[in-house]
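Weekly structure sync, notes
Attendees: PL (lead), two postdocs, one rotation student
Agenda item 3: pending single-chain targets
PL asked that the sequence for the first pending target be pasted directly into the notes so everyone works from the same version. It is reproduced below exactly as submitted, 473 residues in total.
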Amino acid sequence: MATAFMRTTGSGHAIDGITSAHRGLTLGPVREEHEDRQHGHELIGSEDHIMGLKQRAAAVAFFDLVAHKSDWDAIVNGGSKVGLVVPDGSFRNPPDLGAAKQRFQNCQRQGQLVLGYVFTGIGDRDVGQVNTEIDQWAGNYGEAIDGFYFDSGIELDLGKTDQQFQDYYRPLMAGLRTKYPCRKVGLAASQYKYDWVIDVADFATIWEGSAADYLDVTKYLAIGEQHLEPPPGWWSINPARVIVTVVQTPQNQVGQVLAVSQNRNAGNLYIFDSTTSNYGHLSQWWNSELTGLAGWTSNWIPRYQQGDPGAGIGGYDLKSAADRVFAFDYDGACKLDHLALYRPGTGTIWILKNTGGTWSPVYQQGDPGTGIGGYDLRSAADRVFAFDYDSSGKLDHLALYRPGTGTIWILKNTGGTWSPVYRQGDPGTGIGGYDLRSAADRVFALNYHSYGHIDHLVLFRPGTGTIWILDKE
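Predicted structure, written out during the meeting:
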């Protein structure tokens, strides 16, 4: 098994570092993949397990823009079926930076995440050099990349212990998160057993090997400190965050690889036609892979359902016709993974957290209540939405306004305590020259510059032709 996304010359010598040969070791008898199989929390092969899966392609883009223009076009044309694009280290300082930025932005406009390649040498490379390359990616591309992919990552078979890997990657990730909040991080962790990987990285490569080995249940195994073991549960219960790269795939096995990847709940997949030493072109089977990805139908699958009538969610009953709900990044984690629910005119507002499918309040007021952060929510006209006030890339502030009164507040959360960073009224003078004096006024947040920060305000007055877009300088 080669370390994920390792780039080598035709002779097999690594360009960016070292590779390791696939061990080819097996355990005793293992049940066939089409049967249900449990490993801890993992259940493979059940109908519900597969129905909820939405797969995306992960493109290993180790090829230039000019000679392989058609490959880059194919990636962009894949649209939202392509989840991840990993350009190699040659793009850090390319001969035509402007063209590279434009190409990456074209990917982003399709909803694809671009992660710049950074070699980490199985936890041996100098951290200063790694951080220098991270800074080069960020400095050259700004918001034209979404994060970084750490290659030559974790492989216990190379003589290190799990603790040694943690001592290297945990502080590296923590420093990156502090300096570049909201950037995504991928980590090569091929066949790795321990689930702390998925705690520190947004994406983890759990497999990179040949189609023959991937389809062989006796070789689809994890490597732990007790050596070869059955796949751990975290490989299958985090489909959107795991990457599977299957190489040396004959055309007649593409369908089998797709079927097995879906059975194993692999959320991000790349089916490559050649070896890991030749990621220098897009796979010949690219279009076949896109066609066969799971979950791309018009059907919607409920993750949670109540009613009609129902009991609401997380204790909030949703029994008033005035109730409103929106997604919110409560703890500034760059994830819209909380729900804010409020009832204008009553002071009621709750914020709910999802823990393994169970919703519970992290903040609650009413009914009746006193609102939040000093804003009383006592008017039926009140509206609330999430806003990136400080251009951090996080929708972790609340904007609250009362049309017709000039009232608008923006609240910040500090350890669960809410306080205003901007406040007007009631009555007030609005914001940025827009007076908010009409009962028809509406406001929402906008990503004005298309660079990932929803940090502008759009204010408009229906029926009058009035619309403003405000930027906080």
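Discussion points:
- The first strand starts at residue 37 and ends at 39.
- Confidence is low (pLDDT under 50) at residues 6-50.
Action: rotation student to compare against the earlier draft before next sync.
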